[in-house]
C-alpha cells in the first residue's frame, strides 16, 4: 500500500482528471515487484506523463507572443520523484501584454495547484532570466538543466545556449561560490555517509552535491570521476522515491521510524542494509566531489598563474619550468606533482607489490591527497602482496596509520579504488556498517580509522606504537560478525596480524587488546577500585605492563573517536587511577622484564663480552663485525661493510617474555640492508655517521652502537645499522666512507649541508601533519653502568643526527644505543655516561632529558618535503 494520493475537483473529466488517474496508476504499482520498484524508468515515465499533461494545459497557440514552458531543476533532468515539486518557468519574448502572459500562466499554474502538487514557478523574459541567473547562483544552477516542454522550442534553445555560455564565461568566479555553498550545506546538515537519519538531498554526499558536479562539468573547467557516480545518484533517487511513497510526504530526511518501511519497499533485508546502501552511494559522491573540487582549484590556480608567469619571463625565449611541472620525490616510485601524490614515471605497480602502501604512506605523511589516476593505476596493476606481508609493507602500513588526520582522505581514496578490500579482506564486512548507538558518530569502518587517528597522538606514551595503531584499526573489526564483537574480533585480529606480518607474540598481544578493549573503561566506571579482587582480575587479564599501557592508550583513542559523550575528564581520571593500581599490582619485576624484552634497555657493557647484546646479533654477523673492528683498529680509520644479501635468521630468544620489536623481525626479514661501521673511539661519531646517512637519503630502520676491544689495546666503536634508500638506489660504501672521513676531520660541515638541503626542499604552501611532540625520559630501571635516555619522536630527516649533536653538546658519552623505527615513530634508547664513566646523577639526567626534548621540538614553519631518514 502506498501513501500517494491525488485529489480532483468534482467530477472533472478533463485533462487534469486523466493525468491524476494515470499518475495514481503509475505510483500505485506494487513496490515489492522488482519490475515496478522505484528507478530511472519510473521517474522518466512520471516526467513524460507530466510533460504531456502540461503541454495540453498550455495549448497550441498560432498567434501572440512567443512563449515556452520550460522544466528546470530536477524536473528538467527528467527525475521526477512522487512528491517532488514541479519547477517550471514560463518564458516569453516580452511582446505580449501583462494580462496575456498572466492568463497563460493561470492556465498552467491553477490546475497544478488544484491537484495538490507543489509548484515552484516563475514567469520571465529572456533578458530577465539572464539577469536573475547573474544575480542568483541557485537560479543559474536550476536553469542549467532547463528542458523544453511546450510552446516555442527555439525560445528554450536560445535560453539554454545563452545561459551555458554565460556559465562558462563566469565559471572562474562562480565555481568557488558553488563550492562554498556545498561546504555550508555540509556544516548545516552533516555528512550523509555517517548519519543515522540522513538528509538524502542536502547532506554532504547527497543529491545536491551530485547536481553541483553536473554544473562543474558544464563549465568545462573540470569533470567529475564517472566510475560509479551515476549509479550512486540513481541509488539515492530510488531511495527518495520509496521514502515519498511509503510516507506520503515530500521529505528528503530518512527518519529512523521510516527506514524499515523503505527497506521493505526496495526489497532489502532490513534498515541496516538500507543505510549501508545509502552510505556507499554517498561515499562515491563525496569522493567524486573531493576529486573534482581539487581539480577545479588546480585549474583555476594554473590560469591565474599564467599571466604572472608570462610577465616574469618577459618574452625571453629560454624555456622555464612551470611550477606545475615540478615533481618532487617522496618515496621509491612516488612523487609530488602540483600538490598531489602521483606515481613516478619509472614506477612499475605490476612489479612492486608494496607500492600502494608506500604511495599511501608518503601521501599521508606529506599531508597531500593521493591523486585519483594513481589510485586507479595501483588498483588495476598492483601485484597482490604475499602473505605474510613483507616487512616493508608492514612498516608502510603503520606509517599510513600513524599520520594523524591526514590518514583519512588517503584511506578514503584507497577505499574508493578497492585497494583496502584487497589488502584487508575482512574489511568488507564493516565497511559502511551503521552503528545504532547514538553515542557513536561514525560508521564502524570510519570509527576504526578515526580511532587510529586518535591513537597516533598517543604513540609517545607506549613502547610499541605499531601495535597501538594496528589495534586501534582492528578493535571493532568483529562488529561485522554475529555474537560478541570483542570475541569475534580477537580471532580476526590474530589472523590479520599474521597476514600483516607480525610474529606470534605480537599477534597474541593484538588479540588481547581487541578482546579486552572495553575492559579498562567498563571496570573503572562500574566496579569498586578499592576491591583487591577488581585489580587482580584486570592484572590477570592484561598480564604485563607493556600490554597495560597499550590498552590504556587504546581505551582513550576508542572513546575519543566514538564521540564527545564517550570521554570526559572524570572518565579519564578513573581509567588513569585503575591503570596505576594495576601497574603496581603487576610489580616492578614485570616492568623490568618489559623494558628488557623491548630491546631498548640492554647495555652492551652488561652482555658479558664487551660487544653488542648477544640476543640480537647473529653468529656470522658477530664474526664479520669483529673483523671490521680489527681492521679499524689496525688502520685507525673508519671501515664500512654494506650487506645487501638476505640476512641469516635469528635464533629465538630463550624463555617466556613480553612482546618485543624483535618478534616481528624474527618472523620476516627486516626492512632494508645491513650497514656495519667500525672506527676508533672518538667524539662526535654518532652525529657524524647519522648525518652522512641522512645526507645520502638513507632511512634508518634500526641501529645498535657498542664498544669493543678486538685487540685488547683500545676500544673501537661498532655501529650496526639497518638502512633503506628513501628512493633511488643505495649509495656505494666507498662514497659513504669518504664522506664520513671528511665529516670527522672537519672538512665537511654536515650540519650545514643538511640545513641547505632542507631549505631547498621546503614548500611554503604545504601544510604538513601535526605529529605528537617528542618525549624524552630517563628509564627508571635502565642499567647499573649507564643512564638510559629513552627518546620517542616522529621520524624525520636527520633526527638521529640532531639527537647525537645534542648529546655531544651536553658533554655526555654515548656508551651504547639501540635505535628502532616503527612506521613513522622513532623509539630509541641511549646509554650515556659522564666524562669519567658511570651513570649520571639523577638531577643531571633529568636536565639532559629535558634539554634533549627541547632540542627535538619541531621548529615553526614547514618541514622538508623528502622522506624521513
TrEMBL record:
Activity regulation: Uridylyltransferase (UTase) activity is inhibited by glutamine, while glutamine activates uridylyl-removing (UR) activity.
Catalytic activity entry: [protein-PII]-uridylyl-L-tyrosine + H2O = [protein-PII]-L-tyrosine + UMP + H(+); [protein-PII]-L-tyrosine + UTP = [protein-PII]-uridylyl-L-tyrosine + diphosphate
Task performed by this protein: Modifies, by uridylylation and deuridylylation, the PII regulatory proteins (GlnB and homologs), in response to the nitrogen status of the cell that GlnD senses through the glutamine level. Under low glutamine levels, catalyzes the conversion of the PII proteins and UTP to PII-UMP and PPi, while under higher glutamine levels, GlnD hydrolyzes PII-UMP to PII and UMP (deuridylylation). Thus, controls uridylylation state and activity of the PII proteins, and plays an important role in the regulation of nitrogen metabolism.
Annotated NCBIfam families: PRK03381.1, UTase_glnD
Domain notes: Has four distinct domains: an N-terminal nucleotidyltransferase (NT) domain responsible for UTase activity, a central HD domain that encodes UR activity, and two C-terminal ACT domains that seem to have a role in glutamine sensing.
PANTHER family referenced in this protein's UniProt entry, alphabetically: BIFUNCTIONAL URIDYLYLTRANSFERASE/URIDYLYL-REMOVING ENZYME, BIFUNCTIONAL URIDYLYLTRANSFERASE_URIDYLYL-REMOVING ENZYME
Family indicated by similarity: Belongs to the GlnD family.
Protein name: Bifunctional uridylyltransferase/uridylyl-removing enzyme
Organism, as annotated: Streptomyces carpaticus
Phylogenetic lineage: Bacteria, Bacillati, Actinomycetota, Actinomycetes, Kitasatosporales
Gene designation: glnD
Amino acid at each position: 500500500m502506498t501513501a500517494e494520493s491525488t485529489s480532483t475537483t468534482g467530477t472533472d473529466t478533463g485533462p487534469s482528471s486523466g493525468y491524476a488517474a494515470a499518475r495514481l496508476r503509475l505510483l500505485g504499482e506494487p513496490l515489492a515487484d522488482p519490475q515496478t520498484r522505484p528507478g530511472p524508468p519510473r521517474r522518466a515515465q512520471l516526467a513524460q506523463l507530466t510533460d504531456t499533461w502540461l503541454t495540453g494545459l498550455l495549448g497550441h497557440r498560432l498567434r501572440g507572443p512567443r512563449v515556452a514552458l520550460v522544466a528546470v531543476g530536477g524536473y528538467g533532468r527528467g527525475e521526477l520523484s512522487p512528491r517532488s515539486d514541479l519547477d517550471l518557468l514560463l518564458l516569453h519574448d516580452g511582446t505580449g501584454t501583462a494580462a496575456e502572459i498572466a492568463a497563460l500562466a493561470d492556465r498552467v499554474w491553477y490546475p497544478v495547484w488544484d491537484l495538490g502538487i507543489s509548484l515552484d514557478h516563475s514567469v520571465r523574459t529572456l533578458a530577465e532570466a539572464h539577469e536573475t541567473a547573474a544575480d542568483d547562483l541557485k537560479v543559474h544552477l536550476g536553469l542549467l538543466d532547463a528542458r523544453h516542454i511546450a510552446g516555442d522550442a527555439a525560445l528554450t534553445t536560445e535560453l539554454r545556449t545563452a545561459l551555458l555560455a554565460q556559465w562558462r564565461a563566469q565559471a572562474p568566479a562562480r565555481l568557488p561560490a558553488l563550492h562554498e555553498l556545498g561546504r555550508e550545506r555540509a556544516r548545516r546538515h552533516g555528512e550523509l555517509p555517517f548519519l543515522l537519519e540522513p538528509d538524502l538531498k542536502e547532506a554532504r554526499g547527497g543529491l545536491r552535491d551530485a547536481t553541483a558536479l553536473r554544473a562543474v562539468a558544464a563549465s568545462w573547467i573540470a569533470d567529475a570521476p564517472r566510475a560509479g557516480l551515476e549509479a550512486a545518484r540513481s541509488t539515492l533517487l530510488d531511495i527518495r522515491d520509496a521514502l515519498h511513497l511509503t510516507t506520503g510526504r515530500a521529505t528528503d530526511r530518512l527518519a529512523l521510524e521510516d527506514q524499515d518501511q523503505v527497506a521493505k519497499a526496495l526489497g532489502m533485508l532490513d534498515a541496516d542494509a538500507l543505510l549501508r546502501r545509502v552510505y556507499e552511494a554517498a561515499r562515491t559522491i563525496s569522493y567524486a566531489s573531493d576529486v573534482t573540487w581539487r581539480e577545479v582549484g588546480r585549474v583555476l590556480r594554473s590560469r591565474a598563474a599564467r599571466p604572472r608567469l608570462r610577465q616574469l619571463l618577459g618574452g625571453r625565449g629560454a624555456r622555464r619550468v612551470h611550477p606545475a611541472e615540478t615533481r618532487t620525490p617522496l618515496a621509491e616510485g612516488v612523487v609530488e606533482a602540483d600538490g598531489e601524490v602521483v606515481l613516478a614515471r619509472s614506477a612499475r605497480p605490476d612489479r612492486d607489490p608494496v607500492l600502494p602502501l608506500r604511495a599511501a604512506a608518503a601521501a599521508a605523511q606529506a599531508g597531500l591527497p593521493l591523486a585519483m589516476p594513481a589510485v586507479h593505476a595501483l588498483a588495476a596493476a598492483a601485484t597482490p602482496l604475499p602473505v605474510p606481508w613483507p616487512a616493508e609493507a608492514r612498516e608502510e602500513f603503520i606509517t599510513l596509520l600513524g599520520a594523524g588526520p591526514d590518514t583519512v582522505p588517503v584511506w578514503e581514496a584507497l577505499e574508493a579504488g578497492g585497494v583496502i578490500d584487497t589488502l584487508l579482506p575482512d574489511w568488507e564486512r564493516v565497511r559502511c556498517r551503521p552503528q545504532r548507538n547514538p553515542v557513536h558518530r561514525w560508521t564502524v569502518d570510519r570509527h576504526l580509522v578515526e580511532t587510529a587517528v586518535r591513537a597516533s597522538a598517543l604513540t609517545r606514551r607506549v613502547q610499541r606504537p605499531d601495535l597501538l595503531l594496528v589495534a586501534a584499526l582492528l578493535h571493532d573489526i568483529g562488529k561485522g560478525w554475529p555474537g560478541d564483537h570483542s570475541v569475534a574480533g580477537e580471532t580476526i585480529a590474530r589472523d590479520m596480524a599474521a597476514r600483516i606480518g607480525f610474529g606470534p607474540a605480537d599477534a597474541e598481544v593484538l588479540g588481547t587488546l581487541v578482546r579486552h578493549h572495553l575492559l579498562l573503561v567498563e571496570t573503572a566506571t562500574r566496579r569498586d577500585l578499592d576491591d583487591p579482587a577488581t585489580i587482580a582480575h584486570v592484572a590477570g587479564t592484561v598480564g604485563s605492563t607493556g600490554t597495560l599501557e597499550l590498552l590504556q592508550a587504546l581505551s582513550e583513542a576508542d572513546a575519543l573517536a566514538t564521540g564527545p559523550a564517550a570521554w570526559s575528564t572524570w572518565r579519564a581520571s578513573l581509567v588513569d587511577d585503575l591503570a596505576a593500581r594495576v601497574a603496581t599490582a603487576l610489580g616492578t619485576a614485570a616492568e623490568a622484564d618489559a623494558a628488557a624484552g623491548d630491546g631498548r634497555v640492554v647495555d652492551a657493557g652488561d652482555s658479558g663480552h664487551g660487544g653488542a647484546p648477544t640476543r640480537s646479533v647473529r653468529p656470522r654477523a658477530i664474526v664479520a663485525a669483529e673483523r671490521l673492528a680489527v681492521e679499524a683498529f689496525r688502520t685507525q680509520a673508519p671501515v664500512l661493510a654494506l650487506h645487501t644479501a638476505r640476512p641469516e635468521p635469528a635464533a629465538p630468544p630463550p624463555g617466556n617474555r613480553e612482546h618485543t620489536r624483535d618478534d616481528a623481525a624474527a618472523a620476516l626479514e627486516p626492512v632494508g640492508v645491513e650497514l656495519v661501521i667500525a672506527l676508533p673511539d672518538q667524539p662526535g661519531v654518532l652525529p657524524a655517521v647519522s648525518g652522512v646517512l641522512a645526507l645520502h637519503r638513507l632511512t634508518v630502520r634500526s641501529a645498535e652502537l657498542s664498544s669493543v676491544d678486538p685487540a685488547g689495546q683500545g676500544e673501537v666503536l661498532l655501529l650496526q645499522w639497518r638502512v633503506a634508500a628513501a628512493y633511488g638506489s643505495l649509495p656505494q660504501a666507498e662514497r659513504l666512507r669518504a664522506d664520513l672521513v671528511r665529516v670527522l676531520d672537519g672538512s665537511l660541515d654536515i650540519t650545514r649541508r643538511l640545513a641547505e638541503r632542507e631549505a631547498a626542499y621546503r614548500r611554503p604552501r604545504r601544510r604538513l601533519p601535526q605529529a605528537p611532540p617528542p618525549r624524552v625520559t630517563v628509564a627508571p630501571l635502565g642499567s647499573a653502568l649507564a643512564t638510559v635516555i629513552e627518546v620517542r619522536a616522529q621520524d624525520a630527516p636527520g633526527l638521529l643526527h640532531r639527537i647525537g649533536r645534542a648529546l655531544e653538546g651536553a658533554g655526555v658519552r654515548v656508551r651504547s644505543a639501540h635505535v628502532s623505527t616503527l612506521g613513522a615513530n622513532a623509539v630509541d634508547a641511549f646509554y650515556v655516561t659522564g666524562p669519567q664513566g658511570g651513570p649520571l646523577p639523577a638531577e643531571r639526567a633529568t636536565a639532559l632529558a629535558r634539554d634533549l626534548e627541547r632540542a627535538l621540538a619541531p621548529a615553526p614553519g614547514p618541514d622538508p618535503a623528502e622522506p624521513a631518514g
